[in-house]
Amino acid sequence: MKDQTKIIAALLVGAAAGAAIGLLLAPSSGSELREDIADYVNDLAEKSREQAKRTAESVREYGNNVVDQAKSRANSIADTVSTYKNHVIGNVKSAVSDYADQAVEYGGNIVNSAKSGIKNGANSLNNDIQNS
């Protein structure tokens, strides 16, 4: 982009210098020559302004495209992270639920075992009392 601007500027300066030299060497009166030079410089300035506007618009469009691409990539990354986060949360919830179920089952086994032990002990004590 910078090289194109330099080339365009060099061409415009060269064209202006060539036109000015051509006008100075042309067989015209001083007032006609000054008027021709002023017209040419005004035309050249207008063309330069138009080219600057086109270049600025091109740079603006390029910048907008870069920003849009960056936003799109950032949104894509955010979506991926969100999906991964939800997946991890689901896995953690599932593991916690499994561990809770195992704890309840283990606790139930302990309670049942204790009940059985107490019942056997009571039966044994009852038998001993009856046999005495």
UniProtKB/TrEMBL annotation:
InterPro entries: Desiccation-related_membrane, YtxH
Alphabetized SUPFAM superfamilies for the sequence: Apolipoprotein A-I
Protein name: Gas vesicle protein
Annotated organism of origin: Mucilaginibacter yixingensis
